[in-house]
Amino acid sequence: MVTAPLPENYLDGFLSHLQTELNLSPRTVRNYINDIQGNFEHGAPKGFFQYLEIRHIKFPAEVDKYAIRGYMAWLLEQGVAKNSVARKLSAIRSLYRYLLREEMISESPMPVARKHGGRLSAFSLKLDRRLPSFLTIDEVERLLNAPDSVTPIGLRDRAIMELLYAAGLRISELTSLQLDQVDFYSRELRVLGKGSKERLVLIGHPATAAIKLYLKNGRSELMKDKEPNQALFV
Question: Does pTM surpass 0.90?
Fold first, then answer.
């Protein structure tokens, strides 16, 4: 399988591949690296390389499909959720794709089998489908009314709550909003999401009113003794 000994910095190259070429978020990159190497600070060993070390399997020369399946079984025996197992397999598959592309190996132990003209992973899991949990109308109203709207921080928090509820933003999208991304006339937000993709999001009257009130009576107070910036929420 191996065409040449792996260079010592091959994981650095893989890390750069995840960050710059695949443009994955810092959290996803961190999870992928932890899934492959293992987290040596918290809990029982669950990383792929940790499993190989425990089983005395050399990477990548001695890793075959049976080693991958053994790793899957080992994780499930430890009570790791199927979704987490699937993510770890995705991280390993990405690593092998990178090694193949860079011609560090000649084949992968994780081929993709074809079935009826489609693509079916030979190492796929049937994931448990969970119904999403949600708040009742009363719980939403109590949450929106929780901030103290007579204080600058309360005005900011109320605007944040209204915006999250109205637009369904990710936390990272909300915290990165700038002043010029809000169009009060059309009640639209320009949101920079995952993969640096920009989209327009409509917001209703309550969220618009809450943001205006925060900008009028809250933001300037919160900006005292701070460096000038264009962040919407400070």
Answer: no
